[in-house]
């Protein structure tokens, strides 16, 4: 019988996930299909019931439900526990298990480049939903220090505490100061939405150099102003689409138990930009 998967969130109509997963199912000849299901904030409980009714095999969870979804899970993996959020759920006979593939999905492009982040200093710009998974990732890799730069100080301070709790040194910087001392960090990661649609750069790139690794999780456009300027300064670049692809591949592998078809999924994703 055909297995059905979904992504839930709001807004959801521009999600790349249906195209990515359907391409992978088709490529491997699997009798599976993947749909986008808009569930507005506040309607998650009802939405999850509806998914169970159609015997959903698994689903991805995106904004605004990644944290709230935790309440409806019967079991969670270690990443979910650490981050406090889920992005991938497996349904077995109405028993829901949550995973968080954002953590390893974030790390994957770093590892693909054979970069070891152990002992590194990281400048993380942003303190929203994506930032926690990134901190958890650097914690897992035993980075040394993570400085959190954010427009709103209070949100950053919460994450400083989180980073310290998982064994990293951590402190706060405002965005202006971050631009001035950026050369002290090996990794510079943008986890704000600044750069979306090609508008804006979260910090000054003047002091970014050849030794810097600049990772922007914004993937639309592929070349954000931060990436574009950092490239001109000679930095190593990691693109947002690489994380998007890696977390999707990890969800696919959890659901199907098969290696995700990298080329087919990559071509599908890049073809959509
Ligand atoms: P998500 O859950 O997708 O990460 P979010 O929680 O709204 O979205 O977080 C967005 C991040 O981008 C935050 O760090 C936000 O900064 P604030 O905490 O100060 O709101 C940051 N951000 C969004 N627009 C920004 C802007 N124009 N300038 C600087 N930071 C911005």
Provide a descriptive summary of the structure in words.
With 273 residues, this protein is of the alpha/beta class. Helix content is 39%, strand content 21%. A six-stranded mixed β-sheet has the order 2-1-3-5-6-4. Strands 9-8-7-10-11-12 form a six-stranded parallel β-sheet, with helices on both faces. The chain binds 2'-monophosphoadenosine-5'-diphosphate. 2'-monophosphoadenosine-5'-diphosphate is lined by residues 63, 126-130, 150-152, 155, 192-194.
How would you describe this structure in keywords?
alpha/beta, Rossmann fold, 2 domains, six-stranded mixed sheet
Total helical elements: 10
Strand content: 15-25%
Please identify the top-level CATH class of the largest domain: Alpha Beta
Overall strand count: 12
Major sheet size, sense and barrel closure: 6 strands, mixed
Through-space gap between termini: 33 Å
Shape: globular
Strand order of the largest sheet: 2-1-3-5-6-4
What share of residues is helical? 25-40%
CATH topology of the largest domain, which one?
Rossmann fold
Pathway: Metabolic intermediate biosynthesis; chorismate biosynthesis; chorismate from D-erythrose 4-phosphate and phosphoenolpyruvate: step 4/7
Domain Shikimate dehydrogenase substrate binding N-terminal: 7-89
Domain Quinate/shikimate 5-dehydrogenase/glutamyl-tRNA reductase: 116-193
Domain SDH C-terminal: 240-266
């Amino acid at each position: 019988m055909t297995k059905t998967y979904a992504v839930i969130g709001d807004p959801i109509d521009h999600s790349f996930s249906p195209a990515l997963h359907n391409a992978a199912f088709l490529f491997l000849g699997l009798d599976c299909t993947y749909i986008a299901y808009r569930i507005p904030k506040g309607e998650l409980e009802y939405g999850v019931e509806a998914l169970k009714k159609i015997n959903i095999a698994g689903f991805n969870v995106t904004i605004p439900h990644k944290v709230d979804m935790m309440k409806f899970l019967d079991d969670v993996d270690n990443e979910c526990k650490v981050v406090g959020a889920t992005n991938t759920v497996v349904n077995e006979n109405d028993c829901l298990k949550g995973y968080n593939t954002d953590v390893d999905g974030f790390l994957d492009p770093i590892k693909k480049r054979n970069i070891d982040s152990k002992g590194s200093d990281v400048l993380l710009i942003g303190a929203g939903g994506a930032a926690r998974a990134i901190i958890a990732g650097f914690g897992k890799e035993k980075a040394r220090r993570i400085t959190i730069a954010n427009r709103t100080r209070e949100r950053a301070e919460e994450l400083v505490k989180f980073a310290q709790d998982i064994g990293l040194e951590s402190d706060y910087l405002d965005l202006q100061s971050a631009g001035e001392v950026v050369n002290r960090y090996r990794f510079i990661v943008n986890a704000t939405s600044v750069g979306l649609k090609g508008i804006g750069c979260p910090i000054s790139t003047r002091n970014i150099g050849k030794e810097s690794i600049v990772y922007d999780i914004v993937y639309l456009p592929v070349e954000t102003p931060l990436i574009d300027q950092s490239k001109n300064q000679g930095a190593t670049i990691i693109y947002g689409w690489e994380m998007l692809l890696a977390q999707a591949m990890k969800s696919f592998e959890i659901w199907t138990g098969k290696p995700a078809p990298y080329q087919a999924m990559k071509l599908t994703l890049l073809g959509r930009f």
